[in-house]
Write a structure and sequence with these properties.
- This protein has 151 residues and is mostly helical.
- It contains five helices and two strands.
- A two-stranded antiparallel sheet has the order 1-2.
Length: 151
């Protein structure tokens, strides 16, 4: 496994093994899937590393926003209930979120809570892959390339 720091990983339904924690808690690049919209820092605002990591991989905030918003539209993840109007910007909070969870219930009404969370994390894994695959900067591509095999 090598490049993955086991202390910064979680096994969660839908992602299964080796899901990254938040970027603000020193996750690997895949953790960008759990980041807020650029221009804002909510979850761990004083520790937010999103903009630093985007710069490190050569992705602009505008490119990041475009990826998340296109993904949201494709998956019908837009919702007035969640921060920034999209589940794409929601974080990992396995223990529940008073905004995300009702939005997921509306999006997937015929699924149990466990099935909704599985679907959510499965989609977040897909979004992580899309973000990393969109890195165009040559140095950035070299940095994210090893993490793609875990998606």
């Amino acid at each position: 496994m090598g490049i993955l720091d086991q202390e910064k990983l979680r096994d969660i339904p839908g992602w299964e093994k080796n899901a990254p924690i938040h970027i603000c808690m020193d996750a690997d690049y895949r953790g960008l899937t759990f980041c807020c919209k650029p221009g804002h820092s909510l979850t761990f605002g004083i520790k937010c590393k999103r903009d630093q990591i985007l710069d490190e991989i050569g992705m602009t905030p505008q490119e990041f926003i475009k990826i998340k918003e296109e993904f949201s539209k494709e998956n019908q993840w837009n919702s007035d209930l969640v921060c920034f109007g999209s589940l794409s910007y929601c974080c990992m909070r396995r223990g529940g979120c008073p905004r995300r969870d009702p939005a997921l219930e509306l999006r997937y009404p015929n699924k149990s809570k466990e099935e909704r969370m599985r679907k959510y994390f499965q989609k977040k894994k897909e979004l992580a892959k899309r973000i990393l695959e969109a890195v165009n900067d040559s140095k950035g591509r070299e940095k994210v390339k090893p993490y793609l095999k875990f998606l």
